[in-house]
Automatic annotation (TrEMBL):
Residues 1-22 are annotated as: Disordered. It is found in: Cell projection, Ruffle membrane; Cytoplasm; Membrane. One of its GO terms (biological process) is fatty acid metabolic process. It is a peripheral membrane protein. Pfam families: 4HBT. It catalyses: octanoyl-CoA + H2O = octanoate + CoA + H(+); hexadecanoyl-CoA + H2O = hexadecanoate + CoA + H(+); (9Z)-octadecenoyl-CoA + H2O = (9Z)-octadecenoate + CoA + H(+); dodecanoyl-CoA + H2O = dodecanoate + CoA + H(+). Its EC number is 3.1.2.2. SUPFAM superfamilies: Thioesterase/thiol ester dehydrase-isomerase. GO terms for molecular function: thiolester hydrolase activity. It comes from Tunturiibacter empetritectus. This is Acyl-coenzyme A thioesterase THEM4.
């Protein structure tokens, strides 16, 4: 059965731009965290710093409004998790890997305010080698949401697993062999 391409993107399970064989970048256009084409997305824009290959970072300056409210005046905890996940995932591209979140843990240290400029930072921590010494498929990253003065409001640690791009494009996230 062919899809109705006359409907707007937000009325269909599969957006028009994802029909056919979209590239990973085209799919990322609809990413809830950073995709410019997602009208309900967070539209986060990151700057990556790879000057120290041992400590790659991704930084985003952002501010949210009541669309994302949880506790009165503050960001919903699930959105905090999405922000941290996004910051950590942004480290995978400069590391030249396609990877998905396998595990993440979060310390909610302070309520994260709405209507205030905030800083979101991802930091690459490590990529343990396999037993034979070759590069492993596990990437450990850290994420933080900070006030502009550096006060940390929330902190995450995440495990990302490298996956095969062809399997992701097919909608089947599986690991490298
Ligand atoms: C790709 C571009 C999009 C990026 C979007 C931004 C990031 C995201 O939000 S992704 C969306 C959320 N994530 C997902 O949907 C992923 C769903 N999960 C999966 O598809 C799979 O579990 C996948 C592909 C990540 C890993 O699959 P699989 O290889 O079977 O993993 P699995 O064997 O269970 O675990 C991998 C390793 O992690 C280890 N591991 C698992 N949990 C933990 C943990 N808590 N601590 C330490 N290690 C752990 C396992 O022991 C295993 O280690 P080893 O290889 O040494 O045995």
């Amino acid at each position: 059965m062919s899809k109705d391409t006359t409907l707007p993107d937000n009325a269909r399970h599969t957006p028009i731009s994802m029909d056919g064989n979209p590239t990973i970048d085209e799919r990322a256009n609809h990413c809830f965290g950073c995709g410019p084409a997602n009208p309900q997305g967070l539209h986060l824009h990151f700057t990556t710093d790879t000057s120290n290959p041992q400590a790659i970072t991704a930084t985003c300056h952002f501010q949210l409004d009541r669309m994302h409210e949880g506790p009165p005046g503050h960001i919903h905890g699930g959105i905090v998790a999405a922000l941290l996940d996004e910051a950590m995932s942004k480290l995978n591209r400069p590391l030249n890997v396609l990877a998905m979140t396998r595990h993440m843990e979060i310390d909610y240290l302070r309520p994260v305010p709405l209507y205030k400029p905030l800083v979101l930072i991802g930091r690459h921590l490590s990529r343990p080698a396999k037993a034979d010494g070759t590069p492993g498929r596990k990437f450990f990253h850290q994420g933080e949401i900070q006030l502009p003065d550096g006060t940390v409001l929330a902190r995450s640690k995440g495990l990302f697993i490298a996956i095969d791009e062809k399997l992701l494009a097919a909608g089947l996230a599986q690991t490298e062999t």
